[in-house]
Design brief:
This protein is of the alpha+beta class and 489 residues long. The protein folds into 2 domains: 3-289, Orthogonal Bundle (Hypothetical protein af1432), CATH 1.10.3210; 327-479, Reverse transcriptase/Diguanylate cyclase domain (Alpha-Beta Plaits, 2-Layer Sandwich), CATH 3.30.70.270. It has helices spanning 3-9, 19-28, 35-43, 46-57, 70-77, 79-91, 102-119, 127-136, 139-147, 149-155, 161-164, 167-174, 178-188, 193-200, 209-225, 231-245, 249-270, 280-317, 327-343, 358-365, 367-384, 408-424, 453-469; strands at residues 348-355, 390-395, 398-404, 426-429, 432-435, 438-445, 475-479. The strands form 2 sheets. A 5-stranded mixed beta sheet has the order 2-3-1-6-7, with helices on both faces. A two-stranded antiparallel sheet has the order 4-5. Helix 3 crosses helix 5 (70-77) and helix 20 runs antiparallel to helix 21. One of its GO terms (molecular function) is diguanylate cyclase activity. It is an enzyme of class 2 (transferase). Its EC number is 2.7.7.65.
Length: 489
């Protein structure tokens, strides 16, 4: 035995089975062992005696008459069952004095033992021996977990490292896997050679006939003890049971329900946590309910994500100061807007508006006053818009409006209405009432026959420039022209 392995097996924190277990191991393979020999060994341990009697009175045995003495239990169970049962119960009292999760380990081991015992009924294995083999199958996990406890709890919570301890990590820690280490520990405990050989030779990637039942038993145990299982996890165990043990669906269901009943029988003897389900039917129903809840939750999450995306999209399209649609929104909207106008042969006007002498508000009163002016103009333009008109803050003190369903004269009139509305309003700032005016350029397109947005904007902007040149606080309207300078009509 190499030094590292010896350090694990002979470590000061490595527990040994109770003395009674050692004596029972001496009797297990002795063909001359009699009932009186076993009774004498068991009777030395009051706790083991009480568990043996309680087992006989449990639903697992369901005796016709209540068992009250060890002698009655011995007679009821028979010599071989009693030897293996007493050894199993005694081994489960093996505990480490460290913070190793003993209860969780033996709970998981009991699950494998019960599954192995029930599955043995599908073959020709001895069910009591299968129970004991399932119980000690992962004893190497306990050995490695105790020996390297301080390192493992630096990586994982103490309650979870049993699930997180992988073959790769075991090799990294000690150069061997749990099965090899477990076999060496079982040798030290003087377990039967055939059990040691089965544990040591186990390879989940190359299963032999001796190992298929244990492989499936571990999967059954994981399912049995799970707080919650998915339909996919249940189906995975069903597939393994069919592949390795040729169990039909009905056989699987019957065996799983038998394991549940066996668990409740043993649970009372060891005070382990109860199961979360009463049958395979109950588990599958809960899995379906969980899937429905998950689906509803996903739908809700998707709706919330969609709402958030819409909100983010709206934020990206909205001017933070005025609340108007911004330049990004204009760029996104203008193509579809012009296409709609054209499909309806609807005449449309593009108005470019600019606040007159805006810089003076900032220079004289400060930027807060300028912000008030921008908000005041935005509010007035929005107020005067018809329901099918659109207004955008294009940038700085410039606004763009799209007005549909209008002939040329109406477009010019609407622009003047906007201009006069701004002229007549006053913007409050501290104790001052600020007078604001705007200049406007209008490009009117007959039946939306010109859809080149760049050309339309350029012509509306030219009209705005002319309004500024004419003294500001006025509007100039022109009919759209094509690239040859001809009026579009």
């Amino acid at each position: 035995m190499n030094p590292e392995l010896a350090r694990i097996i002979d470590g000061e924190n490595m527990p040994s089975p109770p003395t009674v277990a050692a004596k029972l191991l001496e009797l297990v393979d002795n063909p001359d062992t009699g009932l009186n020999d076993i009774s004498r060994v068991i009777s030395v341990d009051p706790k083991l005696t009480a568990k043996t009697i309680a087992y006989c009175n449990s639903p697992l045995i369901a005796p016709v008459k209540k068992v009250t003495t060890l002698q009655q239990a011995v007679t009821l169970l028979g010599i071989r069952t009693l030897k293996l049962l007493a050894l199993s119960f005694s081994v489960m009292d093996t505990r480490s004095g460290r913070a190793f999760p003993n209860e969780n380990f033996w709970r998981r081991s009991l699950g494998i033992a019960i599954a192995a015992k029930v599955l043995s009924s599908a073959g020709d294995q001895d069910d009591d021996e299968s129970f004991l083999l399932g119980l000690i199958f992962n004893v190497g996990v306990m050995a490695i977990g105790i020996a390297f406890f301080d390192r493992l709890v630096q990586q994982f919570d103490a309650d979870e490292f049993l699930e997180k301890l992988t073959t790769e990590l075991e090799y990294e820690l000690c150069g061997h896997d749990r099965y090899f280490v477990g076999a060496r520990l079982l040798e030290r405990w003087h377990f039967p050679d055939r059990m040691i050989q089965i544990v040591e030779s186990y390879d989940p990637n190359r299963l032999t006939q001796d190992h298929m039942g244990l492989f499936v038993a571990q999967q059954f145990s994981d399912l049995l003890l799970a707080a919650e299982s998915t339909e996919g996890q249940i189906l995975k165990v069903r597939d393994s049971a069919k592949r390795y043990l040729d169990l039909s669906k009905d056989q699987f269901d019957e065996m799983f329900d038998n394991m549940v009943q066996q668990w409740y029988g043993y649970q009372g003897l060891f005070d382990f946590k109860s199961l979360k389900h009463a049958s395979i039917e109950d588990m599958e129903a809960k899995a379906r309910e969980s899937m429905v809840r998950l689906s509803l939750g996903m739908e809700q999450t998707i709706r919330e994500m969609h709402t958030e995306q819409e909100e983010l999209r709206d934020l990206a399209r909205t001017d933070n100061l005025t609340g108007l649609l911004n330049r990004t929104a204009f760029d996104q909207d203008i193509g579809p807007l012009m296409k709609g106008y054209q499909e309806r042969s609807e005449s449309v006007g593009m108005i470019v508006a600019d606040i007159d002498y805006f810089k003076q508000f900032n220079d004289r009163y400060g930027h807060a006053a300028g912000d008030n002016v921008l908000c005041g103009v935005a509010a007035k333009l929005t107020e005067l818009c018809r329901k099918h008109d659109h207004v955008y803050r294009f940038g700085g003190e410039e606004f763009v409006l799209m007005i549909g369903e209008c002939d040329y004269a109406a477009a010019a009139t609407i622009a003047e209405r906007f201009r006069k509305g701004v002229e007549q309003m006053r913007v409050g700032y501290n104790e001052d009432l600020l007078k604001v005016t705007i200049s406007m350029g209008v490009c009117w397109i007959d039946s939306a026959k010109l859809t080149d947005v760049e050309q339309i904007f350029k012509q509306a902007d030219a009209c705005l420039y002319e309004a500024k040149k004419n003294g500001r606080n006025c509007s100039v309207a022109r009919k759209a022209q094509d690239s040859m300078g001809c009026t579009v009509s």
